[in-house]
Amino acid sequence: MRAPCRHGLAFTCRSGRATTDSSYSNKTLVSRLVMCVRMAIPPAVNRPVGTIERAIEIMEYLKEHDTATVSEMTAHLDCAKSTTHRYMKTLAANSLLVEDDNEYQLGIRFLDYGEVARNKYRLYDEAKPRVDELAEETEEKIWCAVEEHGRSVHIYGAQGKHSVQTYARVGHRNYLHQHAAGKAILAHLPDNQITKTIDRHGLPGRTPQTITDRDELWEEIEAIRDRGYAFNFQESVEGLHAVGAPITDENDIAIGAISVSGPASRLEGPILRDELPTLLLGVVNEIGINMAHP
């Protein structure tokens, strides 16, 4: 097993009651699990890297489109139909794809890989019960996210009684500057890492409210650092507000973040600016202490 990352590895999930995100399905896991395709390549032959890349392309396509025929996939890959057929048959033989009436879709084997990968985060183990409690208490949507390669990744989500569904899902990658949890993480990274992240990924907009100017983002980062939490005013989804707070280590560097989101009509005024931030700060501080003292 590789050495633990800063999120902590090799921890298992606690048992107990949980509010499972309904969008947690096999297709949501692929973006974090593409390297498991190596298991689908017969080991007897020294395959070129291109073979693995093509297999990853197949799975990424199916993640976005749900199903595809060999002909559709051939057009996407721009290669011989016989080659595409061989790739897809090999993946299906290893339960990574399922064939039904000449259409292929992702196999449930990804669920096993996803559960193992997700449970390796100690942060997930610590945050999950608190995320569930927050969802029940606020009745809104709660997310726990981490940073990976300059992007945010949702590792767990829980739905409150009145939560609304958006594009977000477990395993979803997002630009850090576009949402509350991501901005909370970004503001609690070293300045040189923030600069590298912006240089690498840019500041693409998702809605008209998304911050896309570098100077404006730095002003926002300073404000987040001063108050300790971040807001999202319809910057990721039109009509959605959110507040996010970072989970930090002993050096005040973010190892993750938790956010609460809901309709702008409901999350406004004192609820958004006072009540939820106070609640969130208590939760992330508790998780941070538990992470520092296992």
UniProtKB/TrEMBL annotation:
Domain of life: Archaea
Signal peptide: none
UniProt xrefs under PROSITE patterns: HTH_ICLR (PS51077), ICLR_ED (PS51078)
Domain IclR-ED as annotated: residue spans: 109-293
Recorded GO MF terms: DNA binding; DNA-binding transcription factor activity
Domain HTH iclR-type: 49-108
Alphabetical GO biological process terms: negative regulation of DNA-templated transcription
TM region positions: none
Keywords of this entry: DNA-binding, Transcription, Transcription regulation
UniProt name for this protein: Transcriptional regulator
Naturally occurring in which organism (per UniProt): Haloarcula marismortui (strain ATCC 43049 / DSM 3752 / JCM 8966 / VKM B-1809)
Gene that this polypeptide is encoded by: iclR
